[in-house]
């Protein structure tokens, strides 16, 4: 009968060892998942920073070009008005110049229109990238929530396992002390 008890105790200890090994493997898996998630978050944050820097540079460049174009346009308009006011008697001579100036003005207006269209396309692209980043952020938050849930489940699992181990330790102590104090009778 004592041998049966010892066999059961050994089996229980083996079960505890298996549970302990499974718990360690689960913890290692959770830690690896958390490390991968952290690396992915860092990579996405770096991508977002780079995208924002590129967009800021492009917007600044386009704004400078637009300002230069507007200044040139204003200067051409000013020059055209001055030529018209000062040279009324030479209108036939200046009509060719005025035509060229209007052509340049029209070209600058077209250039400005193209730049504005390009700016709108880049803003649309930025909005798409922002939407994509938000979706990725939502996905990462979902993964983080899963990791946190797994951490809570693991902590609960570890707490119940430790409680079971403590109960087994007390039971073993009790059985060892009882067998020591009251040895089984020999048949």
How would you describe the overall organization of this protein?
- This protein has a single domain, classed as Orthogonal Bundle (Helix Hairpins), CATH 1.10.287.
- The chain is 94% helix and 0% strand.
- It has 2 helices and no strands.
- The longest helix is centred in the last third of the chain and has 91 residues.
- The radius of gyration is 40 Å and the shape is rod-shaped.
- The chain starts with a helix and ends in a 6-residue tail after the last helix.
Number of strands: 0
- State the low-pLDDT regions, or none: none
Fraction of residues in helices?
over 70%
What is the succession of H and E elements? Answer: HH
Provide the descriptors you would attach to this structure in a database record.
187 residues, mainly alpha, Helix Hairpins, rod-shaped
Quick take:
This protein is mostly helical and 187 residues long. The protein has two helices and no strands.
Chain-wise SSE layout:
Blueprint: H1 2-86, H2 91-181
Helix pairs in contact: 1-2
